[in-house]
Design goal:
The chain is α/β, with parallel strands linked by helices. The chain contains eleven helices and eight strands. It has one domain: Arginase, Chain A. Helix content is 38%, strand content 16%. The longest helix has 21 residues.
Length: 309
């Protein structure tokens, strides 16, 4: 087991990919909720690198007239991708503070490239109500937070996006919590052969077995593991601060069970926190829960030091 010690936070105040404004306020909300302090209390050496900035680039008009904020998203992928790679080279475990889920089109390729540079395979745990497997042609809503998984898997339909520097193999992806899969996404999900576990399955059979199988594969391969955590993985009754709420999501207890398994494994090497909308969280209950879950996913450094590791 690797024992990382340094953690860095990188904000991605991005809301252009979502259909409801507010995700751009996420990084500030995590900071105000004391995420850095909580990680420090767990024994991590924490550096807050501030917020990434877009690198604007010209983008030709796209035939899908429904697309929203394509130039802004392309600029975000360029700027955040470069900043994420630098963060990954600077510290053991970067945590990316979203921002809507389109930020994963920048963070995941950067972390995959870091893994490739280190000679390690790259794995992705996707905790989300949605598979986000649309491309620029198939999305009917035009909201680009519904496309990052397809992009990082190297699928067609992204000529307008930056060239993918490094991606993830479908065999190395596990999706948990799915319960809103569009008609265009379902056959793609099946064809890719991704280990996909709908929330209905997890509610019936539990989260332990499928997660353990996936983590065993990561450990056996000696791979890097990126966790992409969408607030809508959770049931809106416990985390209402999301613009894409889907009923019958994970309970706080189920999410903490996953977090504990991840922490015990010591395998997490990077983390996305996405789709928090502070405008829908007036009492701050959602951001507090996500803060606690994020800390719970990572190996507690203080405990590791007490055991002499």
């Amino acid at each position: 087991m690797r024992h990382p010690e340094t953690c860095c936070l990188l904000g991605a105040p991005v809301g252009a990919g979502a259909g409801v404004a507010g995700c751009e306020l996420g990084p500030a909300a995590y900071r105000a909720a004391g995420l850095a302090e909580a990680l420090g209390a767990a024994g991590w050496s924490v550096a807050d690198l501030g917020d990434a900035h877009p690198q604007p680039a010209p983008v030709a008009p796209h035939p899908n007239r429904a697309l929203r904020h394509l130039p802004e998203t392309v600029g975000m992928i360029r700027g955040l991708g470069a900043a994420a790679l630098e963060a990954g080279r600077r510290c053991d475990l970067p945590v990316f503070l979203g921002g809507d889920h389109s930020i994963s089109a920048a963070t995941i390729p950067a972390m995959a490239l870091r893994a490739r540079e280190a000679g390690r395979p790259f794995f992705l745990l996707w905790l989300d109500a949605h598979p986000d497997l649309h491309d620029l042609d198939t999305t009917a809503s035009g909201n680009l937070h519904g496309t990052p998984a397809a992009y990082v898997l190297g699928l067609d339909g992204f000529a307008a996006f930056p060239a993918l520097p490094a991606g993830v193999a479908a065999d190395n992806v596990c999706m948990m919590g799915l319960r809103s899969v569009d008609g265009a996404e379902a056959p793609r999900l099946a064809a890719l052969g991704i280990a996909a576990h709908p929330m209905a399955e997890l509610a019936k059979c539990g989260v332990d077995a499928p997660l353990a199988r996936f983590l065993d594969r990561v450990a056996h391969a000696g791979g890097d593991l990126h966790v992409s955590f969408d607030v809508d993985f959770l049931d809106p009754a416990v985390a209402p601060a999301v613009g894409t709420a889907v009923p019958d999501g994970a309970s706080a207890a189920e999410a903490h069970r996953i977090a504990a398994a991840l922490s015990d494994s010591g395998l997490v090497t990077s983390l996305d926190l996405v789709e928090l909308n502070p405008r829908l969280d007036p009492e701050g209950s959602s951001v507090a829960l996500i803060r606690d879950l994020a800390c719970a996913m990572l190996p507690p450094r203080a405990a590791l030091r007490r055991t002499g590791t």
